[in-house]
Design a protein that fits this description.
Blueprint: E1 6-16, E2 28-39, E3 44-49, H1 55-63, E4 70-75, E5 78-79, H2 89-94, E6 95-98, H3 102-105, H4 112-124, H5 128-141, H6 158-170, E7 176-180, H7 188-205, E8 208-213, H8 216-220, E9 225-230, E10 233-239, H9 240-245, H10 250-257, H11 267-279
Parallel strand pairs: 3-8, 3-9, 6-7, 7-8
Antiparallel strand pairs: 1-2, 1-4, 4-5, 9-10
Helix pairs in contact: 4-5, 5-6, 6-7
The structure holds adenosine-5'-triphosphate and magnesium ion.
Length: about 280
């Protein structure tokens, strides 16, 4: 088998603890306590777990935004932990991120075209005509027409803004896309449209995903492998099918039991139930 795209081994990430008065200074809190997993090229890998379990911290460590206390992160042979604060541009090109809230990740004072164009120029030094062509191309990939080039983020719906954030992330032609709760801020019907888009982009572009979510139902559409996290550790890993059909860990079972199931009533039964409701006195 070929080498994985990303290999995370025994990763520990700590945050400094300490009050404003200086008590406890020097003490640290391990948000990630020895996590290991690999992501193959083109694979959809999901981290699922309750709030505070350390999912985003793992994403931040891979992006080089927080230091690695111990363990290693190796991307395509390169030691990410050794980058320190100077993450090379070539690495940033290959590993991109989409966050939950595009309102805070997009610049409200720049048009969609300017923001995507800026990324293209920084990474590929494209000229003006080539930049314009690629911006339209990228917007097309996420289902937005040329009309959106001159729009400001504030003029867009939540789903459209998230599509712009995805297009901007794709501008560098990454091999790994970290999606940290990318649909949590969207309403349910927009969620499934954006998830469908992410799923088809993965196939079209051969992208690998690290998909972070607290919601197992959301993850099923986009991940082949799901790792369940609890308090800084991975408690269960499985292909999405085995994990959903036969969860071994009690915590996974608990998470699954909170996933809404489709209505058990058939169409006729639902109609009958509605008729009965209408007939009932108010
Ligand atoms: N900058 C920070 N300084 C100190 N502690 C932090 C910092 N960021 C996160 N933490 C703590 O680290 C733990 C893991 O946080 P993290 O954001 O990784 O969780 P998460 O699984 O992404 O949660 P959520 O689902 O709420 O986004 C939490 O206990 C959190 O309070
Ligand atoms: Mg998080």
């Amino acid at each position: 088998m070929s080498a994985p795209l990303l290999a995370v081994s025994d990763l520990v990430v700590s945050y400094p603890l300490g009050s404003a008065l200086g008590f406890g200074r020097g003490r640290t809190f391990d948000a990630v306590k020895g996590v290991s997993f690999t992501i193959e090229p083109g694979q959809g890998f999901a981290l699922v777990g309750e709030s505070g379990s350390g999912k985003s911290t793992i994403g931040r460590a891979i992006l080089g935004l927080v230091p690695v206390a111990s363990g290693s992160i190796v991307f395509d042979g390169a030691d990410v932990a050794a980058f320190g604060k100077r993450v090379p541009l070539a690495y940033r090109r290959q590993v991109q991120v989409v966050f939950q809230d595009p309102r805070s990740s997009l610049n409200p004072r720049r048009t969609v075209g300017e923001q995507i164009g800026q990324v293209l120029q920084r990474h590929f030094s494209t000229g003006r005509t080539e930049t314009e062509r690629r911006v339209c191309d990228l917007l097309g990939k996420v289902g937005l027409g040329a009309y959106f080039v001159d729009r400001f983020p504030g003029e867009l719906s939540g789903g459209q803004r998230q599509r712009v954030a995805i297009a901007r992330a794709l501008a560098t032609e990454p091999r790994l896309l970290i999606c940290d709760e990318p649909v949590s801020a969207l309403d349910v019907s927009t969620q499934s449209q954006v998830l469908n888009l992410l799923a088809s982009l993965r196939i079209e572009l051969g992208l690998a995903y690290l998909f972070i979510s607290h919601d197992l139902a959301v993850v099923r559409q986009v991940a082949d492998v799901v790792a369940v996290m609890q308090r800084g550790r991975i408690v269960e890993v499985g292909t999405s099918d085995t994990l959903y059909e036969a969860p071994a860990d009690p915590y996974t079972r608990l998470l699954l039991s909170s996933v809404p199931q489709p209505s058990p009533l058939g169409r006729e039964e639902r109609r009958a139930a509605r008729r009965a409701l209408r007939a009932a006195p108010a």
